[in-house]
Amino acid sequence: MNNTEEIAILLATLVLFSIISYRKKALDKQGIIAGNIVGILIYFFGRAAFSTGLIPFFLIVLFFTLAEFATRYARLLRKTHHEIRSIGNILGNSGAALIALVFASPIGFFAAVSCALADTASSEIGLLSRKKPRLITSLKQVRAGTDGAVSKLGNAAAIAGAVAIALIHYALFQDLKAFGVIAFAGVFGMLVDSVLGASLQKQGILNNSNVNFLSCGIAAIAAALLYAYF
């Protein structure tokens, strides 16, 4: 596939993404614009880290699709309102992955996406737990949705999300070591997110987007270091 064909696929997907996001009220206008810009940047920087920029581009599209599905599913069962996401959510969940590509780190990119999906799955599916979650820093029971709260159901969903991204990498590159590193980094990043949520976010020092960005960045760095060490 030549560059012209790839760019045509890229633009067609972005147009479809924008239309669906607008009609389904998944993103506001600023979020749609940010999503398009991030998608284009991931494609172009991804060409240096992968054989084609479409690999990282479609992985990030898959992440946002699965994240939106998890959110809508949890809100439907709980009969609660689904808020429209904006630019902060886009940058918080994909910013670290984009930076990993700027530094030409495919492992870091997959780990950042793994963390983002693990955290989203943990937060959204965890809301469906019949038992009250516990604050990760004190293990005290708190109400569902509390920043830094974790549950067995949420943790299981996080592991499933992280492993799913790791499996995609394995299917593409047949690298067992990378599979383990990406899966581990995704779950590790989710736990870091919970700790930051229970501490700095609770104190008002960071907001949710900041926490997401930092935890995914830490997951990317951890994965790159672990992969190089082992």
Automatic annotation (TrEMBL):
This is DUF92 domain-containing protein. Belongs to the TMEM19 family. The chain crosses the membrane at residues 6-22, 55-74, 86-103, 149-172, 178-199, 211-229. It is found in: Membrane. InterPro entries: DUF92_TMEM19 (IPR002794). It comes from the Archaea. Keywords: Membrane, Transmembrane, Transmembrane helix. The keyword Transport does not apply. The keyword Transcription regulation does not apply. It comes from Candidatus Iainarchaeum sp. It is a multi-pass membrane protein. One of its GO terms (cellular component) is membrane. Pfam families: DUF92.
